[in-house]
Specification:
single chain; mainly alpha; 0% strand; disordered C terminus; transmembrane; transport
């Protein structure tokens, strides 16, 4: 009899242990997937900041317009943050995060698309301003023309001749891509942290949050490294003979391969979205037995 009772207790204990193991594995898988999304999130932010000067030169747009493009990320974030925070907890949170990462990746790829539609970059040959250790700051052509024509024309006419007009309206794709990146990034933090708070053991959620923030720092490291590497590559690398290019990365007319930054970050975001679509809505949480 004692042996039969022992076998019965062992059989009852095994299902509960299996449930607990599945619960722990489900949460760990979610943490691993969320870590990838955090890296993709910070990588995209750094890529945008490091490529902003090349975008300004490539599209020949003003600094104020570049700032507007950079701010489109916050615009996209504000458009959906309220709806995601309110309805997200009632829906399948892992899949929503996966959809957000996928949209974030599409935004990165969309940002790089204008490079393939605009044709080759043609730098100005009139002004040749190279920066070196022995060079001194030179006046821009616009400022020199202002000085020479100050006595011959009114200030309004001189000012109009120095306005910088947009060279291409393809920057709209960059604006839309950055906005999509802001929309896609919205569900990652609020839904990810709420998922951890709901299913992590008591007192462990703060530990998991610290680990996620530490892992997220990998994104800026990769972003600055890629930004430095691609900025030294000519924008039309692979399309033109580099031996015919007469400017160097130290030249003010140089435009680096900014589009490669967004392609890499966009593809990484799409890859990071895949695991979320295979995760359950809730881990297999162990149910507490009611005491009789």
């Amino acid at each position: 009899m004692d042996q039969n009772q022992h076998l019965n207790k062992t059989a009852e204990a095994q299902p509960s242990e299996n449930k607990k193991t599945r619960y722990c594995n489900g949460l760990k898988m979610f943490l691993a997937a969320l870590s990838l999304s955090f890296i993709a999130k910070t990588l995209g932010a750094i890529i945008m900041k490091s490529s902003i000067i090349h975008i300004e030169r490539r599209f020949e747009i003003s600094s104020s317009l570049v700032g507007f493009i950079d701010g489109s990320f916050e615009i996209g974030n504000l458009l959906v943050i309220v709806f995601v925070s309110y309805f997200g907890s009632k829906l399948h949170r892992p899949k929503l995060i996966g959809i957000g990462c996928f949209i974030m990746g599409i935004g990165g790829v969309l940002t790089a698309l204008p490079h393939f539609f605009m044709g080759y970059y043609r730098y100005s040959k009139e002004t040749n301003i190279n920066s070196s250790e022995n060079s001194t700051s030179t006046l821009s052509t616009c400022l020199i023309n202002q000085i020479l024509s100050l006595n011959r024309a009114s200030p309004e006419i001189v000012g109009k001749g120095c306005l910088k007009e947009s060279g291409s309206y393809m920057w709209i794709y960059v604006f839309m891509g950055n906005m999509l990146r802001g929309i896609g990034e919205t569900p990652i933090v609020p839904l990810g942290l709420s998922y951890i708070d709901d299913f992590a053991k008591e007192g462990h959620s703060s530990l998991y949050l610290g680990i996620l923030n530490a892992i997220a720092m990998i994104g800026p490291i990769i972003g600055f490294t890629l930004g430095s590497l691609f900025s030294k590559m000519y924008v039309d690398i692979g399309y033109v003979d580099l031996s015919t290019i007469r400017i160097t990365p130290t030249d003010s007319r140089w435009v680096g391969a900014w589009w490669l930054n967004f392609l890499v970050s966009g593809l990484f975001s799409i890859i990071s979205s895949i695991p979320f679509f295979f995760l359950p809505q809730t881990p297999k949480k162990k149910k507490k037995k009611k005491k009789k």
